[in-house]
């Protein structure tokens, strides 16, 4: 059945290390998104992509990078430049501007 | 600057009663609003949405009301069930930027048996 798969569920990063979070969808959605959630806060948009080979910065893009080489995949790299990377990361997708976004189950990133 | 605000971090109601979750927004350009439900360690699940051309949308036990003049929306759950216990987020977007959602900080709903 269709959905959004995020992996891994838990991820640990050492200081100065880049890590990549995976997001795959088989919903045939054009648009994909990455959000970050911190305790007691809402979701904040990091990056989004409306079409393959194109992506745009969201509200908190600094320290993150993305690629969109395939329609079904939108990986997020948390670089060493992101000074406070500990958070719950959520990937979403949708089809059409009037359609709701559907979310994966998230990746929790922690710093060792 | 929080454009979407959920001022109640938590709400407790008895099973069978009505749950009312509130959300205020400041950006008058918002014209599409959604409610999501989230369990711990899972992604949010879409519940219901409303366009600014309407003031009410109903789906089973869930009804969303929009008051544009007050820049306020609310989610009513009737009757409330223990399985409704979760964090509820409201979100808003702007036509033309409709793919970008701005989220509130969430309200933890606890339905007591």
Q: What order do the helices and strands come in, and which of them pair?
A:
The complex is a heterodimer of chains A (112) and B (113).
Chain A lengths: L3 E4 L2 E4 L5 E7 L5 E7 L5 E9 L2 E4 L6 E3 L9 E3 L8 E8 L7 E2 L3 E5 L1
Chain B lengths: L3 E2 L4 E5 L4 E7 L4 E9 L6 E7 L4 E4 L2 E6 L4 E6 L8 E9 L2 E7 L3 E6 L1
Parallel strand pairs in B: 2-11
Antiparallel strand pairs in B: 1-3, 3-8, 4-5, 4-9, 6-7, 7-8, 9-10, 9-11
Fold and architecture overview:
The complex is a heterodimer of chains A (112) and B (113). With 112 residues, chain A is mainly β. Chain A is built from no helices and eleven strands. In chain A, strands 2, 4, 5, 6, 9, 10 and 11 form a seven-stranded mixed beta sheet that branches. Chain A has a four-stranded antiparallel beta sheet with strand order 1-3-8-7, with no helix packed on it. In chain A, a hairpin with a 2-residue loop joins strand 5 and strand 6 (54-57). Chain B is built from no helices and eleven strands. Chain B is globular, with a radius of gyration of 13 Å. In chain B, strand 9 (86-94) and strand 10 (97-103) form a beta hairpin. Classes of the chains: A mainly beta (112), B mainly beta (113). Chain A binds chain B through residues 4, 6, 9, 31, 33, 35, 40-45, 48, 50, 58, 90, 92, 94, 97-98, 100-106, 108, and chain B through 4, 6, 9, 32, 34, 36, 41-46, 49, 51, 89, 91, 95, 98-101, 103-106.
Features:
heterodimer; A: mainly beta; 7-stranded mixed sheet; 0% helix; globular; B: 113 residues; mainly beta; 6-stranded mixed sheet; 5-stranded antiparallel sheet
């Amino acid at each position: 059945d269709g959905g959004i798969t995020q992996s891994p569920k838990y991820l640990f990063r050492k200081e100065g290390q880049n890590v990549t979070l995976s997001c795959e969808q088989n919903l045939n959605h054009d648009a994909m998104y990455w959000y970050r959630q911190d305790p007691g806060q809402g979701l904040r948009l990091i990056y989004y992509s409306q079409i393959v080979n194109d992506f745009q910065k969201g509200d908190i893009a600094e320290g993150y990078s993305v690629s969109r080489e395939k329609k079904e995949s939108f990986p997020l790299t948390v670089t060493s430049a992101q000074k406070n990377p500990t958070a719950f990361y959520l990937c979403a997708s949708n089809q059409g501007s009037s359609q709701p976004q559907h979310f994966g189950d998230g990746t929790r990133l922690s710093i060792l | 600057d929080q454009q979407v605000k959920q001022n109640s971090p938590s709400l407790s109601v008895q099973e069978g009663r009505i749950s009312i979750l509130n959300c205020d927004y400041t950006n008058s350009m918002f014209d599409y609003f959604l409610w999501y439900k989230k369990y711990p360690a899972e992604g949010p699940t879409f519940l219901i949405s409303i366009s600014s051309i309407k003031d009410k949308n109903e789906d089973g036990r869930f009804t969303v009301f929009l008051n544009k003049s007050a820049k306020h929306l609310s989610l009513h759950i009737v009757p409330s069930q223990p399985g409704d216990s979760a964090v509820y987020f409201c979100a808003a977007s702007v036509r033309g930027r409709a793919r970008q959602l701005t989220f509130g900080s969430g309200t933890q709903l606890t339905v007591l048996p």
